[in-house]
Amino acid sequence: MAIEARPRRSVLYLPGSNARAMEKALTLPCDVVVLDLEDSVAPEAKLAARALACEAVRLGGFGSRELVIRVNGLDTAWGAEDLAAAADAGPDAVLVPKVSSPQDLAAYRTTLGAKTPLWAMIETCQAIFALDALGRASAGLGVGCWVIGTNDLIKEMRCRPGPDRAPLVPALAMSVMAARAHGLTMIDGVYNDIPDLEGLARECAQGADLGFDGKSLIHPTHLEIANRVFSPEPQAVAWARTVAQAFDSAENAGKGVLRVEGRMVERLHLAEAQRLIAVADAIAAGEV
Fold first, then answer.
1. 3 state DSSP class of 151
2. What is the rounded CA–CA span in Å between residue 240 and residue 275?
3. Is the overall model pTM greater than 0.90, yes or no?
4. Rounded CA gap, 252 and 122, in Å?
5. Strands 257-260 vs 263-266: parallel, antiparallel or unpaired
6. DSSP 8-state assignment for residue 212
7. Mean pLDDT, 10 residues at a time, over the chain (288 residues)?
8. Spans of all domains in the chain
9. Which fold is adopted by the domain 10-229?
10. What angle do CA 239, 244, 245 make, to 5 degrees?
11. 32-36/10-15 β-pairing
């Protein structure tokens, strides 16, 4: 099985209606750019935003950055035409909102067509109680990434998350577990307090500790912190290379368990070491 090595540490949302922001994104150090047609765009600007975002995709120039369009839901007046326009423009993926059931995913895949990669927002209480079914459906429908929409989840739960996001932690952890069970990338939700970089760093660290691959972001000043926190730690990469080299040696051919520098390592540790090395090498290759 191929190792997923594409870094998605920083997933920056930009309003599809803001041409200047999209132009600036051509030079920003983010792993993913999401051109948003949904929450950040007023109803009267939806059609113009769709045209601008699709034109930005066609023009290109985003380099190694992954380029994603977030569309409006199929239950809105814009959703079906958003999907058709996005499929024609050809982004790296289309992100769909408020997926709560496998049937929702199937409807998006049918409308979008088979060729364009699909990402899904996990942001409803119903979705949290359907995570395993959504994971199985995602694997079968070409969904490569989930993004947890914490703002919508907070609104629906009517909870008070606080700095530690305590009411959300069960949903965050279960979402990561379901994503891992079905081979999906998992992106944490946004941090809303733009000037509070210390709070952002704490929340990024919490997300990394929970197992998220990266962070949804709404401002360029958040990129450095997310990139740093979600990059593999140098000592972890060094240990991963040690593990991989041990299993690669001729004397250990065919062995399932080794003792490396006094620690027991198994084939499951090798698989994680190979993934970590691949991600670290991909990050290094993309840095200027």
1. helix
2. 9
3. yes
4. 43
5. antiparallel
6. -
7. 76 97 95 97 97 97 96 98 98 98 98 96 98 98 97 98 97 98 97 98 98 98 98 94 92 88 90 92 80
8. 10-229, 234-286
9. TIM Barrel (3.20.20)
10. 95
11. parallel
